[in-house]
Design a protein that fits this description.
With about 60 residues, the chain is an all-beta fold. The protein has no helices and three strands. The structure holds zinc ion (ZN).
Length: about 60
């Protein structure tokens, strides 16, 4: 069984913390000794939704 990814799905994702629809995600750049990462958080409740796991070779 294959799972497909739908990028045209119309319903907005919901924040697991405040339960509101997520239409925008706030991102904050975090610099560490391991490289630059991005912290993603809800615009409404400001709780963190996730962190990018990009390694340090990306310096943009
Ligand atoms: Zn929220």
């Amino acid at each position: 069984m294959r799972i497909r990814i739908r990028e045209d799905f119309v319903a907005a994702p919901i924040c697991p913390h405040c339960g509101k629809d997520i239409e925008e995600i706030a991102a904050r750049r975090v610099e560490s000794t391991l490289g630059v990462r991005f912290l993603y958080y809800c615009c409404d409740c400001r709780k963190v939704l996730g962190v990018s796991h990009r390694k340090g070779f990306w310096m943009g």
